[in-house]
């Protein structure tokens, strides 16, 4: 369901939106796509931060495992 709203943006930003919209899209479609992309990026950043926290919590264990694997390599 679409809901009509009103926002205030900088004039230069609105001109950029108008350039992007061109003949095939209207302002609302461009702004909606931008908001969706922004939300997706925020979600990705949140997941990346959680992943980094997990990696950092297990860094010592992972480093020990990597060193153990290196011990099995044949010297060149």
Determine the strand fraction and express it as a percent band. Answer: under 5%
The proportion of residues forming helix, as a percent range, comes to over 70%
Number of strands: 0
Oligomer description: single chain
Largest sheet: none
Rounded to an integer, what's the Rg over CA atoms? Answer: 24 Å
Tally of discrete structural domains? 1
> How many H/I helical runs?
3
What pattern of helices and strands is seen along the backbone?
A: HHH
Distance between the termini: 65 Å
Q: Structural class, from helix and strand content? A: mainly alpha
Poorly predicted sequence stretches spanning 5 or more consecutive residues: none
**Overall morphology:** elongated
The average pLDDT value, as a whole number, equals 93
Commentary on this structure:
The radius of gyration is 24 Å and the shape is elongated. 72% of the residues lie in helices and 0% in strands. It has one domain. The mean pLDDT is 93. By secondary structure, the protein is an all-alpha fold.
Structure summarized in a few sentences:
The chain is an all-alpha fold. The protein has three helices and no strands.
Describe this protein with a few key phrases.
76 residues; mainly alpha; elongated
